[in-house]
Amino acid sequence: xxDTLLRDQVSAPSRRGGQKAxxxxxxxxxxxxxxxxxxxxxxxxxxxxxNVFDEATLDELHLAISxxxxxxxxxLVFVSxxxxxxxxxxxxxxxxxxxQERLEHLIVKGQDAFRRIADLPMPTAAAIHGACVGGGxxxxxxxxxxxxxxxxxxxxxxxxxxxxILPAWGGSTRLPRLIGLPKALNAILSGKSYAASxxxxxxxxxxxxxxxxxxxxxxxxxxxxxxxRKRHFATNNFVSxxxxxxxxxxxxxxxxRSNYPALLEAIEVVCRGASGSxxxxxxxxxxxxxxxxxxxxTRNLMRxxxxxxxxxxxxxxPSIQLADLDPIERTAVIGAGVMGAGITQWLSSREVPVIxxxxxRTRVAAGMELVRxxxxxxxxxxxLTRHEAMLRMDLIHPSAEPVxxxxxxxxxxxxxxxxxxxxxxxxxxxxxxGDNTILATNTSALPISELCTADGITHPERIVGLHxxxxxxxxxxxxxxxxxxxxxxxIERVLAFVREIGxxxxxxxxxxxxxxxxxxxxxxxxxxxxxxxxxxxAFIDEAMLDFGMPMGPLRLLDEVGLDVAGHVAVxxxxxxxDRFELPECIHELTKEEHFGRKSGRGFYxxxxxxxxxxxAKDTVYGGLSREQLADHLAGLMVKESxxxxxxxxxxxxxxxxxxxxxxxxxxxxxxxxxxxxxxRNSPPPxxxxxxxxxx
Length: 695
Fold this sequence. Notes:
By secondary structure, the chain is of the alpha/beta class. The protein folds into three domains: about 1-295, Alpha-Beta Complex (2-enoyl-CoA Hydratase, Chain A, domain 1); about 320-510, Rossmann fold; about 520-650, N-(1-d-carboxylethyl)-l-norvaline Dehydrogenase, domain 2 (Orthogonal Bundle), CATH 1.10.1040. About 45% of the residues lie in helices and about 15% in strands. The chain contains 27 helices and 22 strands. An eight-stranded mixed beta sheet has the order 14-13-12-15-16-17-18-19, with helices on both faces. It has a six-stranded mixed beta sheet with strand order 1-2-3-6-8-11, sandwiched between helices. Strands 4-7-9-10 form a four-stranded mixed beta sheet. α2 packs parallel to α3, α3 (about 100-120) runs antiparallel to α12 and α20 (about 515-530) crosses α22. The chain is globular. The two termini are about 45 Å apart.
């Protein structure tokens, strides 16, 4: 009677099979026992596309474990009913309003559930198909075995440090004991997710099999003798762990400049937990997470995660039914330069057929060579296999001759940044494309509205900006730039397409520089003016690296190209006036054809493409400290962000913050320019507002 009650509470059928109990139809997981006496716990969250751990799921997991303890099966396997997700970790939304006491309760409940799994007397396995990250991998680590499918959707990782926290349901304790301290530290500090084969090489996964054989293979492995595990004594002993902790901490401090406390907390917990008492290590995990939960860094990183999730579902006109719109399936890119080749490679890598068109064979050939190099890099990084890269290359149709675009759903122009040239291109595209073809420009600053009213334009409602960022293969953001002519249906089709190819869209209204470049340019220009006032370029750049930017403003100008930045600034100055006036030092450098890294000289000198640290001219330090200088320069981005918000260039402050973090690398732990401004004006630590784990 007790067995039946426990199984019914977790929506389990009887041992003989049959229909699941009606009371369990809204359950988050189900327990079944096969004729071979194998218990199977299936995660199947009824209200979400992903399985996540909220408190209700943890409660049901505890019930299921109790049922397994009573049933005493020959083995236990965890599986998922979702098509491409095993378990996606903790439900961050359920933690949004959790105070310290509530958060501690959730941590302990999760730790206890996974401890009970680890202590079960029968062998256990996680049969992993799809994303297994965060709490999902922590559950798998509590099992005796992990068997993963060889499907492309299967990824395993602990990304918590990217969110400003650390694995606190046993991941920081169990992973170093499984694969050794150095590998575990790298996995946790980087937050990387690994494909199944790579995870097997690391020792996280015991076997990789086709998805259709996952349960069968798990059952077979469970029937074998217990797996013999390496002890990793050479790296996990106290002396080695102390040395690893010292050198890793020094390296992380140098790289992060103390801006990401979660990394330092993770180093302490992982290194100290690599050996010794598991119970004490779990306590350290909990205490570290509670300390991190009250910090602004964690709050901002969590908020950015939520904003990225929002962008993945972004709708501009929700009343429009996506099912009624034609999907974008065939594309063309006009212009085979760096951006055109980058966009082409990205589209084909996402299995989208694309025509790559330029005016002569030499340029097309150069563009295809860039595409090949990008695919080669993807193969080296294990993003694609060599065979997959070849198949995706076959989706590209290079052409140096005019071709019909009637069957294309989307044409992206990525030609030279010259408005008159673009007008001619778009007039020609209107003649050669279908009435339903969307025409997009990848311009970074030129007014799209002027394209809509140019001679020869027949369908201004289908013209839109699709501003990809360089390098396309690494930058997630795409600015979807709309004009007064752009139809809502076109906007929705484009947004759906941007999401489908794995980019994150932000809708902005047409205006010189759009959103990101407009906010960024005053910051870059002022850095040049500081050089005119004899500030050392290295001092300026170091100040912004301390602030948390991935690159200083003058190094960034060298990377972009001083000639390119000058063209953008001219466009912006015509629209907005003197605050976009180029500094004298940029005029002098470009006059001497010092354009930055591509020419070997800019604000710095370059050898083999690398800066060697020498300034463009002898300078002296100014009168501001690094922190004061950083506040001054970042404040210009805040001011321009406020102007864009007031003018309605972006929908809200959250879109601006997300765009600036994704598009410029604005210090993620500061949350974006407007979030940083709010934090500076917020109450000091200790106020009840900062005592909450908020997203």
